[in-house]
Every structure is written in C-alpha cells, then in structure tokens.
Amino acid sequence: MESIKDRYAIVGIGQSPVTLRSGRSELSLALEAVTAAIEDAGLHTKDIDGIMGDHPIRVDAMAIAGALGLRRVGFFIEPEFAGGGVPGGIMHALAGIAAGRAEHVVCYKSLNGASKVTVPGMAFDLAPHENGFTRPFGLLDPAAYAGLAARRHMHEYGTTSRHFGAIAVTCRRHANRNSHAIMHDRPLTLEDHQQSELLADPLRILDRCVDVDGAAACIVTTAERARDLRQRPVYIMAAGQALSPCLARGTKDPTLPENETSLLSRQLFSMAGLTPSDIDVLQICDDFTCYVLMALEDLGFCRKGEGGGFVEGGHLDWPDGKIPLNTSGGNLSEGNLEGFNHIVEGVRQLRGAAQAQVGGAETVLVCGATGTATSGLILRR
Amino acid sequence: MAYLEGLPPPEPHSDYNPFWEGCRRHELLIQRCRDCGWYRHYPRPLCPKCHSWKEQWARVSGKGSVWSWTVIAYPLHPAVADKVPYNIVEVELIEQAGLRLISNLIDCRNEDIFIGMPVEVTFEAMSEGITLPRFRRAV
Amino acid sequence: MPYLPIPLPLPYPESEGFWEGCRRHELTIQACEDCGAYCHPPSPLCPACRSWKRGWSRVSGRGTVAGFTIVTRAIFPGMPVPYNIVRVELQEQQGLCLLGNLIDCPPETIEIGMPVTVVFEDVEPYITMYYFRRTEPDNSGET
Fold first, then answer.
1. Which fold has domain C60-136?
2. A31 reaches C (C-beta below 8 A)
3. Full-model pTM
C-alpha cells in the first residue's frame, strides 16, 4: 500500500472573524472562510471539485456546492465526532484525491456555537443504547465525562487542578497575542483559574473551551499541483484516525495502556518516520484542559502520568518552550471551532506567518479531540 | 424527594428493557454472555469478547466501588438548571474488573465522595414511572 | 386560514428580506447587485458571480408550473389530503423556481406549463405566507 507521506499539501487557508454573536448564518460564515481559502490558494471557485463538509444541521456539502455554483463535485465527506473527526476529514479528502475523484478539496467547519440555542459546545446526542444509561443520571454534557476522566487521572497520578490550569493559562497567553482570538484582550493567571467557578468538579469553567461563532477552511491538493499555486505548500507527512477501545463512548479510562490517542500517535509517527522530539509545534484540540494533558502523555511527549510535571516545566509556552502548544489560543481561548482553527494555525506556523511565530518551525502535529474518536495530522514545510 | 427528578427517562428498547424491568423489581441485572460469561454494560446485542449473540441477564450483587466521580456545579444544560450541584459517579461492580456504570451517590455529601468508596445499589422510583439504580455508601 | 397546518417558516438572516416582502404582499427575490442574477432560496453569495453584494428585487409574481405532485396520504395526523405541492418557475429568469402550493385549484386540473400568479395570506402577525393561483387572463396584474 502506498504511503500518502508528502504527496499532498494544504495550499490555502481562510477564516471568518470569531465573535460571540455573528448575526449571520453559518452558511455565510462558511462561505467567507471557503472563499478566502480559495483566494489564498490562488485558485478559482470552479477549481473546487471536492468538499470535506460539516454537519447537515449546520452547513453541509450541498449547501456550499449550491451557494458556490459548483457543478462537478465528485467527492465529499462529512466527518463525524466533531473535534475528534476534523483532522480525519482531511485524511479522507486526501483519499478522495488519491482515488482520482477530485483535484482540489475544500475543507471547512462553521458554527454559531455562541449565539445559537443548541446543546452547547459539541453535539451530544448519543445513541438510544447509551442515552438511557447516562441522561437519567444527569450526564448530559461532555463536561461530565471530562470531569470523570480528570478525577481518575488525579487519583492515579497525582495530577492537580493547577496542572490543568497551566494549560488554560498557556493557551490564553497565546490568544493574547492573536488579534483575532476571542480572548485577545483578557489575560489569565493561574490564580484566576483556581478562583473560577467549578463546572464539573474537578474541572472549572476555565478548563473548558469558549463557544464562539465563526468558520475556518483550507484547501488540499497534490504536492505537484501545490507547486504552481500562490502560497508555499504545507505538506502532509501523516494522517490517521483511531476509535477509543473503551466500550462506552466518552468514558476515557486514563489507566489503559493503549487508547485512541496512543494508537493515533503510532500511526502518525510511523507514517512520517519521526518521533515526538522532531515536532516543533503542537496543536491539540482543547475542548477541556484535562484531555490535552492526557494527550501529551498518549502522543508520547511525556510518559504516562507525567503530564502534570510536563506542563509545569513551561515546555508548552511560546516563545521559549521546546514545544509551544496551540499558538493561536486554541479552542480554550481563540474560540471553539472544533479544532479546525488548529489546522489553520499549523499552516500559518509553517508558512512563517503566525502572530506567535515559532522560530524555525519545520513540523507541526495536529491532534483532534480525544476520548471517543480521534484523528490527527503531521504537517511540514 | 428523588435525586434529580425530571430528567429524560430511558426510551424503551427490546435490547435493554430487561435492565429497567429488573430495576422495577429492585434487582440490578447486568447483561452477560451465555457462552463465555463476560459481563457487559451498556447492554448491547453482541458479546464484545467472543461475539456470541447468546445473552442472559444476570442478577449481580449490587456491590461495587466508586471508580470516579464528578460534581456538576454549573448547569451547562438547561434541564439541570435548578438541580446543580449534583454528583455523577462511575461505579465499578465487584463482579468484573472494568465493569462500570454511570449513576449517582445519594445520602452522601458531595465533598465526602472518594475514589474507592465501597458502595451498594439502591433503587429509586421516579415520578415519570421509571425506577433508577442509585448507589449508597456501603456500611 | 393557511393551506396546510404545518409549522410556519422561521426566517434566518439571509431570508428575512424575502419574508418582509411577503408581509408587504410583494414577492421579492434576492438579486445580485453586481451581475443582476436572481437566486432562490436566498444565499449569502451569488452563485453566478460569487459577489457578496446581495439585494432584493420585487418581481412580478407570475410564472408557470414547472412541476407538481399531489400528496394523497397523510404522513402526519391531521394533514388535509389530498394536497398539492408545486414548483413554479418565475418568468423573470430561467430556472428561478419556488416551491409552493396552488390554492383554489382542483388537483386534476393542475398541469405543467399552467400560468400562475402569487397571492399572499397573513397567517400570523409576524408571518405572511405566499401561495399561487392560476392566472386568469383579466387579472394577471393582481398580486
């Protein structure tokens, strides 16, 4: 089987502004991001013949195709699992190109996550088989799963709320440098985090992402076609997906030696021919701080159980940390775009165009949301 | 007054109705493979170990320990706006390592909950006509 | 009395202009301020030229039946079957179609190409529904 390594590239990126009340439809936001990405790539709308889309409740591929007047879309995919599925959607886009079904695939995410009165954060309607055993007990939101996982991790390894808070503070500091981040003007200290209201004990409000209205998009194509386009290509070295081995979704067991994130890590690093020490910048989907800490362990950036010590060491902070994390602020402080913002920021870092630019960045690892299903990418200059 | 009144009751489904019927009789029934004996929860049509379709509903002791817990302090979901703070526990039953279910601890202050606390099942009739399994600290 | 006892439309940002027009008993269709192309349902972007400059243009309300169906089985209790659904191509632009219902028209008389004109009914204080009626030769100017 042929590897996809280095054969595909992200050639255009686009974003809408991120606000708490867009006053616009999600279609409008998506179109702003998509048309910006097409323009950024130096392509024409009619060059788009593949779509990696979003949930039909919001903006599905048909809505984009109709609005742009696309008449020959030969490939489309709408990945499930929200933030866990986003990088995997890019992987599917590559598969569509590899199968000869499309040449330029536009990928996007769009949501009025702040202003719309729907279940906050992420879609959380489980199958009836699972709803009956969770909802009557008040488990109505991913925060409850995160709280259970965080509490267990603290019990097993001595992780503390301050460790989780350190991740929130790091992402906020990076958002403070990003003029487009929702929390650009609001600094955050660890003491602020510790004083903040409890959400799902041991997690606090500030351990959770900020819901926003906004959209982000990118264009993928082959490395050959990328060479003729406007921007310096960002090559995809590896892409992968993994499902949790836990029998019930969301119930991340931090004591398992193998989980979806460690499976993903093996896929990505073996495909890229790299190790964690080769990664210059980390973009980890951060719906909740505790999952980021656990991902650092499972991705192999530190040993199992040592995530707390790792985040205390300042390794994740721009500019001096050895592996700056979520350099545009992440879902935690840039705004929850279900991790699509992480892909866009990863591309900016590798183009040398980021606001919190990591000097000499050559590689970026993007990891989707973890816990149930996850996916990821390794990108390079 | 039952703990957490007014939350959506489970939808009936032939795959797992025996669980809720057992609760009505104040019995904790866990689905068990008739071929290899593996317990599984949530109930599902196939054994995840040996893939047999042959199932039984085994009455378990109801004893276990708190594997993890959380206290929902902030009502992210409108349905619980007037119920916070409330606890959710993940209880590991003694019958099998890793056999866990989601429930709540009642007659216990949230600040007294700890991982490893021995618990036993109790049953609570809700006004929607369903009986739910809850847990109490075991003496 | 609305033709069908169904949930009424919920305007969203791009469609508000359409429903405001209906309240004025005017059929207004989104039109591109750059190339003039009409677009329905309303979209943030012109599908013809990709311009973001969207405007609203009052149209004649006249068109022809481009397609229709008669629903004979009530999927939801209380639906007054039989009822029709028509696709009307407006005379202003080829392919510019609206879905709607034909009122005061026996099902067996509906045919492709039948000329129709829009009519309005104030259903609630905040929503006015549009329907179509067969165009009579002497009142084709009525809206």
1. OB fold (Dihydrolipoamide Acetyltransferase, E2P) (2.40.50)
2. yes
3. 0.90
